[in-house]
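Give me structure tokens for this 149-residue protein.
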Amino acid sequence: MRHALLIVTGLLPAIAPIAVQSQERVDRVAVQNFQTTVKQLETALQSRGFMIVARADHQNMLRMVGANTKGALTLEFGKPDMMKMSLPAHPEIGLEMPMRIYVWERGDGKTVVSYHRPSAVFAAYGADLKMMGDMMDPMFGEIAADATK
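Here you go.
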């Protein structure tokens, strides 16, 4: 995403998109179109008790500066009870909360749901938060599966 932003602003010459795959990042290709995938993601999050606290519509922001792009949206979400358990003891984890999932359209028109595994994100903050992330990984997998079916 950083490369795409730099290309749009003219700070970096146009280059081929970089495919990023790692143990930390998960990309799932959706069966449905962008709008349906976003709705399915919202439903999947809310059905598991997550509260959507912000929507960053990258597509709309780029339109404001005259750039056209395919669908691109970040949802930020969390559970107040989860934050209540972790934030007082580890205030630095606030950088990672609320959590984020990015929905975007590839050049071929396929919609992708991307996120960083909670275990990888929280590992930098100590063993107890890594353990919380380990417990969240399967739930994020289920959410992404529901969003992409």
